[in-house]
Amino acid sequence: xxxxxxxxxxxxxxxxxxxxxxxxxxxxxxxxxxxxxxxxxxxxxxxxxxxxxxxxxxxxxxxxxxxxxxxxxxxxxxxxxxxxxxxxxxxxxxxxxxxxxxxxxxxxxxxxxxxxxxxxxxxxxxxxxxxxxxxxxxxxxxxxxxxxxxxxxxxxxxxxxxxxxxxxxxxxxxxxxxxxxxxxxxxxxxxxxxxxxxxxxxxxxxxxxxxxxxxxxxxxxxxxxxx
Length: 227
Prior knowledge:
Radius of gyration: 17 Å
GO molecular function: serine hydrolase activity
Distance between the termini: 31 Å
CATH class: Alpha Beta
Protein name: Valacyclovir hydrolase
Helix content: 25-40%
CATH topology: Rossmann fold
CATH architecture: 3-Layer(aba) Sandwich
Domain AB hydrolase-1: 26-139
CATH superfamily: Alpha/Beta hydrolase fold, catalytic domain
Number of strands: 7
Keywords: Hydrolase
InterPro entries: AB_hydrolase_1, AB_hydrolase_fold
């Protein structure tokens, strides 16, 4: 039941991950914007069933302990994260695995499930979106200045990154994700959703301050058999 912490070289970067459990069902936990395995999934690493599951929580490049490199947001940053995530699990010798993705990690998980269907067992996403609307951009700009964040949300991230990296990366994220809204349909991964074949469970928090419910409904309508 111990949680091991290690780094492994994947696609030219050293990715940090935590692993626990010895079950036959491997599960990758994918954190959200600025998140890490530890900050976003501490309770899951501690209390998910370790007889049933082998649990891996990763820090995407530029986040958590997967620094260097510094985090950047090129147009394909979600695809890059999806490839990193899948290649990490393959480097750890998992032939097939499930994905639990929250927020940006949910988007990454959707892309991974669509692009690598033979590798993905099951998919759970919450707080994920397949496109960015002008209304979303307005909401994102509301969190651009981290000094306005609540102490509860801000504190663990400031402790992990230091104020300067945290503030700079948050601004860069807002710019990076807002760029999708410049396309006619605001598309991130809409065209990929019908390619997802694994059992999929979509969760939406009724009080989610960043994401309107319509995003969850859109994903549900386009992934056949999803719940």
